[in-house]
Amino acid sequence: MILDKILANKKLEVEQHKSKLPLEIIKQKIAPSSKNFKKALKEGPGINLIAEVKRKSPSRGPIRPDLDIEQIIKIYDQNPNVNAISFLTDEKYFAGSLEELQQISSQTKKPILRKDFVIDDYQIYEARYFGADAILLIARILSRRQIKKYIDLAQQYGMDCLVEIHNESDIKKLPENADIIGINNRNLANMEIDLNITRQLSQKIANEKVLVTESGILDSKDVHKVKNLADAMLIGSAIMASSDPAAKIDALLRPKIKICGLTNFSDANLCARLGADFLGFIFYEKSPRFIDPQNASPIIKKIKSHYPEIKTVGVFVNADIRRVKEIRENCGLDYLQLHGNESPDYVARLSGNIIKAFQVESKSEIKSKIKKYRSYFVLLDTFHPDKYGGTGETFDWNVLQKFPEKKIFLAGGVNPNNISRAISFQPYALDINSGVEKEPGIKDKKLLQKILGNK
Predict the structure, then answer these.
(1) Tens of pLDDT along the chain (455 residues)?
(2) Collapsed DSSP state (helix, strand, coil) of residue 173
(3) Active-site residue, 260 included
(4) Which one of the listed residues 133, 160, 260, 267 is annotated catalytic?
(5) How many domains does the chain have?
């Protein structure tokens, strides 16, 4: 088993390090960390990101053999979505080094996790000497007593410990002082990955613990699977294997995009070409972005012939239910968005994918309103006494944290200037309308490119 080989080599490596840099010298020179790893994992409104640096791994082989440490840390340091940085210091199997750990620590103000196979007290002192602010402890290879001892020792020097588990046997090893729990979706015995491990084990960990999901998160779909189960996610291979790590981080965290209020083929086609996930057509006659169903139908059919993967949404406000069904059939709509005061019974009478919109007037009232509806897709928009959307105004987006179990479409004033902040709340999708317009119903090409160009 590869783990046995790693551990056997690690024992030799540790002894070599001790002879080169005696513990007595390390103790004379180390000072407590001033970077708070645990706090960094709790900062954002959504799931936080520990971005990893590594050249290779036993499971994948070479990942980024030409790694430029200075360049990648600059990318991580400048990206607001990166909360902490992880670095593999194992020499033989991951091609890391402690000297590079020290380089990384001096290059960023973000906390650094030293990932390695800790089996000796010496490695904890060594980690702090070379600039680590936190260390990885793997429950599979340690006893409960060792884990407790190592955490106590690390805390003396201001370091946090990410205690990694993979099964219920590992959970039994967790001492009370283990504050940060990493759920590794990879089985170290056979290197197989299953994201369901995070779902299964997260339910067995006390709520006050900080949870980190590790391994197997490759794209935004994977992020959506785990984002409501943990406080943070550790991602390495997916970023390291990308030719553009900065763009990969954005792609991992970017929600789906719906461009609404489309009234012509040119705008709809441009949105589809730029990569929009949803196209919205408003069938509410009082809206300045109203489109007649007879005009929408040929646009939708033509778009679908070129972009079959794109989803089309028909927006209705308190419409006759028979009329809604008729338009859905004639236009070939994938989703119905109900943006008025439709009752739960009204919604229940419509089969298929339903997006129920709610105007956020009060944080205390909105949750009780949504509970009355079965619709899995929820759209949150800014309250206006006389309008059903399209106001260009935002609301308090912190309300999104009340609905971790729902797929939320965030609407209301999303535009190129605030999209980064909107993304930080990690909704399922962003619903953008007036924020990319020249005038009601006419989209602005440059604004669309800003929103969708890096998707």
Answers:
(1) 788 999 999 999 999 999 999 999 999 999 999 999 999 998 866 789 999 999 998 888 899 989 999 999 999 999 888 999 999 999 999 999 999 999 999 999 999 999 999 999 999 999 999 999 999 999 999 999 999 999 999 999 999 999 999 999 999 999 999 999 999 999 888 888 999 999 999 999 998 999 999 999 999 889 888 888 999 999 999 999 999 998 899 888 888 899 999 999 999 999 999 999 999 999 999 999 999 999 999 999 999 999 999 999 999 999 999 999 999 999 999 999 999 999 999 999 998 899 999 998 766 678 778 888 877 799 999 877 666 666 678 888 888 877 766 789 999 889 888 888 888 788 889 999 999 999 999 999 999 998 886 44
(2) coil
(3) yes
(4) 260
(5) 2
Same domain, 324 and 207: no
Which residue in this structure is represented by tokens 């719906």? 258
DSSP 8-state secondary structure symbol assigned to residue 388? S
My answer on whether 271 and 216 are in the same domain is no
Q: Which of 250, 279, 310 is where one domain is finished?
A: 250
The size of the chain, in residues, is 455
Residue 432 sits in the same domain as residue 337: yes
Look at residues 250, 267, 288 and tell me which one is the last residue of a structural domain: 250
- pTM recorded for the entire structure: 0.75
193 shares its domain with 266: no
Q: Are residues 310 and 344 in the same domain?
A: yes
Contact present, 295 and 262 (Cβ < 8 Å): no
Residue 158: CATH number of its domain: 3.20.20.70
Long-range residue pairs from 400-404, CB within 8 A, at least 24 positions apart, any chain: 400/45, 400/425, 400/426, 400/427, 401/45, 401/425, 402/363, 402/366, 402/367, 403/367, 403/370, 403/378, 404/228
Same domain, 244 and 260: no
Domain range spanning residue 395? 256-452
Q: Are 104 and 127 in contact (CB under 8 A)?
A: no
Active site residue 170: no
Residues 245 and 113 in one domain: yes
